[in-house]
Amino acid sequence: MPLALLALAVVAFGIGTTEFATMGLLPQIADGIGVSVPHAGNLVSAYALGVVVGAPVLTGICARVPHKRLLLLLSGLFVIGNIASALAPNFGLLFAARFLAGLPHGALFGVGAVVASRLVAPDRAARAVSKMFLGLTVANIIGVPAGTALGQQLGWRSAYAAVAVIGVVALAALAAFVPHQPRGQQAGIRHEVRAMANRQVVIGLATAVVGFGGFFAVYSYLVPMLTHLTGISDTSTTLVLALYGVGMTAGTLIAGPLTDRALRPTLYAGLALLAAGLVAFYFTVHSTVPALVTITFIGAMGALITTPVQMLLMAKAKNAPTMAAASNHSAFNLANAGGAWLGGLAISAGWGWASPNLVGAALAVAGLGLAFTGGLMDRGGRGSESSEVITSSAAEALPEAAPTTSAKG
């Protein structure tokens, strides 16, 4: 089981590297394919669009495919997308390749989360899921800086080629270490879509979009904040972004045990502390050491939210958790776009480079309000969500011959 979780973490590492390395290589990509840097920035949107579309569509189409086989198929598509990105001769084909590379992103995380939760005892499900997410946070510390440096030294195509190699390694690890997990009569697109209509799932996704939008409202403009207000040089911002990743890793490490113990309180605390950290950063951004401490804290609180939201959606989706788990990552990408847009509006309105912090804090508070609303509406009892994931996932995995399987709304 530890090797299976490691294989899932390698997948997450590759996804995190390819998603964020593009941002650091936009000047090289723009120069290489003959477009402006802002125009090249549309490649980031192409990948995000692929995530938003691919998460529900691919999990729906493959609703009856056994989880291990689906992981292998999605990983193969991830490798193909990055190879196509490395070989694309012009902007149009590169745009299409980035969209293709983004398609399996959400589905891989969704299926991987369900698989991880079923590898361990019910009281350790969130810890297993958070271990997979560690690959994503470590990518921000190691993968993205390394990919950016590689692309700057050997050309941007080499970065995508390296990610494709990571994908091949992940594919081999999944094939070797992840056990077969059958999908029985509860599997199917009808069950997945029905689960998505659950009001707790809808509120959970809205919480992710709005609450995590607060995180991205600041993350999107962190570099100009550091250079204009903190006085950090352009060459040092990469190290600060890595520090952000250290905070995210710390938050992910504590999210698993806390979520296993008390899911909703962990979500409430994460959103409240994220809002507090963003307000604090509005004031500390002008001093280097306080700013760096606050950045690390914000990264930790942003990551702390991810695991409880993921587990909540898987629990409330009952016997068909895969699409809900995958759609969580569509929600995060919508949060990325929405948070960046609102933060940009504040700057354009003349409120200053620090203003996205207040926008982000407001979004985090709004997300907390949505989370509280879901808690008040929830009649399932306190602290039961994590164990519900195992119960529902096990029900989904029962063979079709099992006479006692029944779908829970």
What topology emerges from the helices and strands here?
Blueprint: H1 2-24, H2 26-33, H3 37-40, H4 42-61, H5 67-87, H6 91-117, H7 125-154, H8 156-177, H9 189-196, H10 199-219, H11 222-230, H12 237-261, H13 263-284, H14 288-316, H15 321-348, H16 355-377, H17 385-397
GO cellular component, one term: plasma membrane
Biased composition (Low complexity): 391-409
Subcellular location: Cell membrane
Task: Name some characteristics of this structure.
MFS transporter; 409 residues; mainly alpha; Growth Hormone, Chain: A
Quick summary:
This protein is an all-alpha fold and 409 residues long. It has helices at 2-24, 26-33, 37-40, 42-61, 67-87, 91-117, 125-154, 156-177, 189-196, 199-219, 222-230, 237-261, 263-284, 288-316, 321-348, 355-377, 385-397.
Write a structural description.
The chain is an all-alpha fold and 409 residues long. The protein has a single domain (2-397), classed as MFS general substrate transporter like domains (Growth Hormone, Chain: A, Up-down Bundle). It is 81% helix and 0% strand. It has 17 helices and no strands. The protein has helices at residues 2-24, 26-33, 37-40, 42-61, 67-87, 91-117, 125-154, 156-177, 189-196, 199-219, 222-230, 237-261, 263-284, 288-316, 321-348, 355-377, 385-397. The chain is globular, with a radius of gyration of 20 Å. Mean pLDDT is 85; it is low at 389-395 and 397-409. Residues 391-409 have a biased composition (Low complexity). This is MFS transporter. It is a multi-pass membrane protein. Residues 2-379 form the Major facilitator superfamily (MFS) profile domain. GO terms for molecular function: transmembrane transporter activity.
